[in-house]
Design goal:
Number of domains: 3
Oligomer: single chain
Largest sheet: 7 strands, mixed
Radius of gyration: 27 Å
CATH topology of the largest domain: Rossmann fold
Number of strands: 33
Structural class: alpha/beta
CATH class of the largest domain: Alpha Beta
Strand order of the largest sheet: 1-2-9-8-7-4-5
CATH superfamily of the largest domain: Class I glutamine amidotransferase (GATase) domain
Helix content: 25-40%
Shape: globular
């Protein structure tokens, strides 16, 4: 994987655009609200990238978040929320859209901006934010401030000259929408910063079309741009697969209107007719499984044998839903005293917004949209930008199966598109992904009091007891941790092994991992393919480095591997780990695991429960009577005895704590897409 220094050497300039909050922890503060906790690992990587470009003499432009990050990178701090801390919300972030969020800024005399615009001391900008610079970093100079409340709106790194080869500038506003109005004749030989960044972006896109670096990913769309596209690349080769037009705001609104109309008709359609459509969909998936698996492998890097396995297993899940939906929807009589009958009926929620995942797109997607459609709902389905081609294939097959138009619309785009989807008047939201994103989604729709179903991450522990079959446990748990590159919410991420069998278990476990074939995902023998998101390698590397620095030992693996334009992470096993290490506390979502030793069952349970997550937990033991009570003491939605990383359509899939709310699968996962109606039927008196 290319380091930040390598990236800086290969590219001509860096643009750090707007986006998520900067984590307060990145500048030594505690978040005032959970929603402002940010993404520390993203901050760390972008700060490293920013400094690498500056050190290499490459120009840097920070926009909004990037402007704030430039300040944090050099020792400054931020206001977490202007409305809370300064009560200046309306000047900077109203409830209107970008084209209405405008205010004036004053250029500081003698600054670089003043040299660019000598005859224009003020200008109008578009600036939508709730964070802002509080304490200016010592190495930065102020270039512009808001005219009404003196908030810092532009900064420059001391010693860098705007217009030269080497400069670093941050602006709080969005020049891609509207920059400071340029004078009629700019200073000779200079270009306004907005034009320079557009030049840099074009050059960077051209380079990335030829060679993908470690930060490459599907290009995220701008919802304000009706011509935005999403570039899909193969994570194993870096080669482009397709460039797809993103769903525009107008198309989203039209899809919502169509879904509302179609759903009203669909809800009145007999359940057996709805089942017939989804059964035809199931048979089309089976007929085209090889082609669909190849698409899945090409855009996610999932080994072809595992992609084929996912397509094969999803058929059983669809069968379960179609078999059980009629009974799940049947009206239930719960009382009859001769005068009054009490009954419970179930009605569809309406229009469901489904924001899905990339790691198991067929499993995760059908867990939601199949029961949602069967119970009479319409679905606006946004696949992950890392599994867009698979999402489009789902839409095509549903249409081919005879699903009426408007009931299933595939929404194409990145995070901006997902946020726009949530602004629609949908009746329910189902999301699968990370805890920070799930929390933001829940907060964004909380005021509307609609059902929210969140399938989030995990830090799934397993305890290996002293009486276990060590060889069998090591074999099963190695696959449970590294299958699909560990890119699974229920992958084993923490192992607690009784001291009496610790050494033998570790020896056998490492031997199992050594046998995993890492290579071309199209090869049927490959077990470990590339990371689906190359940028995640920095997160995994940071967890390993932090653990080793604190005393952990790398038994195998430990680093990034680059080959053929893709990014792999060597399967990594750590021992000597402690519970305060990131690798034992934070979700890894990759091919790394820590193995700790414990002295007793009680110690194992206590350490397994020492987490904010609660998705799955397991015990490997020779005695079921010993294991099951231990599992009963662990706070997790799924409990495994002598197995792991397993999902069944007959059992509910649910999380606790930061692992989510709501559930999928089982009969409960069918009725989750309905709302109950209670009938009180009083019989008329006989005359």
């Amino acid at each position: 994987m290319a380091t930040p220094d390598d990236v800086a050497a290969d590219l001509d300039a860096l643009v750090l655009a707007g986006g998520a909050d900067v984590a307060p922890g990145s500048y030594g503060a505690e978040p005032l609200r959970p929603a402002w906790a940010g993404q520390p690992e993203r901050d760390h990587y972008e700060i490293s990238l920013l400094r690498a470009f500056i050190d290499a003499g490459r120009p840097v432009l920070g926009i909004c978040r990037g402007h704030q990050l430039l300040n944090v990178a050099y020792g400054g701090t931020l206001y977490q929320d202007l409305a809370t801390e300064l009560e200046v919300q309306l000047e900077h972030r109203s409830q209107q859209r970008y084209h209405r969020n405008i205010h004036d800024v004053a250029v500081v005399p003698g600054s670089g901006l003043a040299a660019l615009y000598p005859d224009q001391p003020t200008g109008t900008v578009i600036s939508v934010h709730h964070q802002a610079i509080r304490d200016l970093a010592p190495d930065l100079e102020v270039e512009a401030r808001c005219t009404t409340d003196d908030i810092i709106e532009a900064v420059r790194l001391s010693g860098s000259a705007v217009g030269s080869r080497r400069w670093a500038v941050g602006v709080q506003w969005h020049p891609e929408f509207e920059a400071i109005d340029p004078p009629a004749t700019p200073t000779a030989g200079r270009r306004p910063p907005a034009r320079r960044v557009h030049r840099c972006r074009r050059r960077q896109r051209h380079r990335q079309s030829r060679r993908r670096c470690c930060t490459s990913a599907p290009r995220r769309p701008d919802m304000t741009n009706p011509n935005a596209t999403l570039l899909i690349t193969n994570p194993a080769t870096g080669e482009p697969l397709d460039e797809i037009a993103c769903t525009t705001a107008t198309e989203l609104a039209d899809a919502m209107d169509a879904a509302r109309i179609a759903q009203a008709v669909w809800a009145d359609t007999p359940v057996d007719e709805r089942v017939a459509v989804l059964d035809r969909f199931r048979h089309l998936v089976a007929e085209q499984a090889d082609e669909l698996a190849a698409v899945l492998t090409s855009e996610t890097g999932k080994p072809i044998s595992q992609a084929t396995g996912e397509l094969g297993a999803v058929l059983g899940r669809i069968d379960f839903f179609t078999d059980k939906v009629a009974d799940a929807l049947a009206i239930t009589q719960v009382g009859d005293d001769g005068a009054t009958v009490e009954m419970i009926a179930r009605e569809p929620l309406g229009v469901v917004a489904n924001i899905s995942a990339w790691n198991y797109p067929w499993f995760v997607g059908t867990n939601v949209f199949v029961p949602a459609l069967l119970t009479g709902n319409a679905v606006l389905y946004k696949p992950s930008e890392y599994a867009t081609l698979t999402g489009l294939a789902m839409g095509r097959l549903l249409a081919d199966a005879g699903l009426p138009p408007g009931l299933f619309t595939v929404v194409v785009g990145g995070g901006d598109t997902g946020a726009a989807l949530l602004e629609l008047p949908v009746d329910s939201v189902a999301f699968t992904g990370s805890y920070p994103t799930g929390r933001r989604i829940a907060e964004s729709v909380a005021a509307r009091l609609i059902p929210v179903q969140l399938e989030l991450g995990g830090k799934d522990p397993v305890y290996v007891t002293d009486d276990v079959d060590v060889a069998a446990a090591a074999e099963s748990l190695a696959e449970g941790a590294f299958y699909n590159n560990g890119q699974s919410c229920c992958a084993v991420e923490r192992l607690y092994v009784h001291a009496d069998v610790f050494d033998e278990f570790v020896q056998r476990y490492v031997a199992e991992v050594e046998g995993f074939v890492l290579g071309d995902p199209t090869d049927p023998d490959t077990f470990l393919g590339p990371l689906a998101r190359p940028q995640h390698a920095s997160v995994l590397a940071a967890q390993v480095d932090q653990a080793v620095a604190a005393g952990a030992v790398v038994r195998i693996g430990g680093g990034v591997l680059e080959r053929n334009g893709g990014v792999w992470f060597a399967p990594t096993v750590l021992t000597g780990v402690t519970d305060d290490m990131a690798v034992m506390r934070d979700e890894s979502f990759g091919p790394i695991i820590g193995i700790a030793t414990v002295q007793s069952d009680d110690e194992a349970v206590a350490r397994m429960n020492d987490t904010s997550f609660g998705l799955t937990a397991g015990v490997f033991c020779a005695d079921e009577d010993r294991a099951v009570p231990l599992l009963g003491r662990i706070n997790a939605g799924s409990a495994y005895f002598n197995c792991c990383d397993r999902v069944s359509p007959r059992l509910p899939w649910s999380g606790r704590g930061n692992s989510g709310i709501g559930l999928t699968l089982s009969v409960e996962g069918i009725v989750a897409f309905t709302q109950p109606k209670a009938y009180h039927l009083r019989r008329p008196r006989a005359l």
